[in-house]
Amino acid sequence: MYLYPLDDEFILDLKSFIKTLDPKEEKEASTSTASYFDRTGLKHTKETRKKMSLAQKGKIISEEQKKKLSIANKGQIFSEEHRKKLSIAKIGKKRKPFSEEHRKNLSLAKMGNINTKKS
């Protein structure tokens, strides 16, 4: 005995519903959440990047967080290829002139050093 009446209309509705199911999505959802939500190769739109940027503006990072970030980023070794790309990216970019205080500190740091040619 069936719970639902098996008339022609019901069967057609059931068949059309089954056609809407995408077997690929079903498979991805059943494997793991990590692979299902993988965004590898996908890029954010300009609008989304602007929203993410605005969300980060004005955030205050504590000294403890800064220290952790500093420790995490120390000792990174960049490949030769990456270093060349960084170098190319900086070509033609101007930097601000050193402040008087910084120039004084540089001068004090150099005092007492003997300039000799090293061969």
Any overview of this molecule?
The protein has 119 residues and is an all-alpha fold. Helices cover 59% and strands 0% of the residues.
Question: What does this entry show, briefly?
Answer:
With 119 residues, the protein is mainly α.
Class of secondary structure makeup: mainly alpha
* First-last Cα distance: 98 Å
Radius of gyration: 31 Å
Low-confidence runs: 26-31
Helix content: 55-70%
- Helical run tally: 7
User: Which series of helices and strands comes N to C?
Assistant: HHHHHHH
Largest sheet: none
Mean pLDDT: 82
Short key terms for the protein model shown above:
7 helices; 119 residues; elongated; mainly alpha; single chain; 59% helix
Strand-helix topology:
Layout: H1 8-20, H2 23-31, H3 33-36, H4 46-56, H5 63-73, H6 80-90, H7 100-110
